[in-house]
């Protein structure tokens, strides 16, 4: 990676941390033991049930605390392009220890926050959510296709497992 890219990465990550109001800043959760297959199945079942209840054709991905794929479901009629998008959102949520909606909201503010669009390997779109157990991040879920403003409802069963 060139020096310019490293500098851009450092500035972008700094913007993410600086954008939280100082009174609300708190340390992000630590990484925990990676999500187990049984835990991932429980999280997936909740997200899938919500998607089916609302007749949403979508892809749902769960990664462990290292960003490695644990589960992926492509519901009927979901476009295959959503597979990579969902995985990217889940990976970003676990890598940066926060929901990807934080990035989306920062980019929407414009100005210097637009540098986040050059953050390599990160998705700046809502849809990635860390999964917590015992206050630690054990993984993340990602989905690209939930209708606007319904993502929290879709992922509500997944964020805290224990």
Structure description:
- This protein is α+β, with helices and mostly antiparallel strands and about 160 residues long.
- The protein has one domain: Beta-Lactamase (2-Layer Sandwich).
- Helix content is about 40%, strand content about 15%.
- It contains 5 helices and 4 strands.
- The protein has helices spanning about 5-20, 35-55, 80-95, 100-110, 150-155; strands spanning about 60-65, 70-75, 130-135, 135-140.
- Strands 2-1-4-3 form a 4-stranded antiparallel sheet.
- A hairpin with a 4-residue loop joins strand 1 and strand 2.
Rg, Cα atoms, Å? 16 Å
The CATH topology is Beta-Lactamase
The biggest beta sheet is recorded as: 4 strands, antiparallel
Number of strands: 4
Q: How would you write the strand order of the largest sheet?
A: 2-1-4-3
- State the fourth-level CATH superfamily: Haem-degrading domain
Q: Give the averaged pLDDT, no decimals.
A: 81
């Amino acid at each position: 990676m060139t020096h310019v890219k490293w500098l851009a990465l450092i500035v972008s990550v700094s913007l993410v941390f600086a954008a939280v109001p100082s009174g609300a800043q708190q340390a992000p959760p630590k990484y925990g033991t990676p999500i187990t297959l049984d835990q991932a199945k429980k999280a997936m079942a909740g997200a899938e049930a919500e998607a089916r209840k609302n007749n949403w054709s979508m892809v749902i991905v769960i990664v462990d605390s290292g960003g490695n794929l644990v589960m992926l479901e492509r519901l009927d009629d979901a476009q295959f392009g959503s597979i990579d998008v969902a995985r990217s959102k889940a990976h970003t949520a676990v890598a940066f220890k926060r929901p990807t909606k934080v990035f989306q909201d920062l980019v929407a503010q414009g100005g210097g926050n637009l540098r986040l669009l050059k953050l390599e390997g990160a998705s700046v779109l809502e849809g990635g959510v860390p999964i917590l157990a015992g206050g630690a991040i054990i993984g993340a879920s990602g989905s690209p296709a939930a209708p606007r403003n319904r993502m929290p409802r879709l992922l509500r069963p997944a964020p805290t497992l224990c």
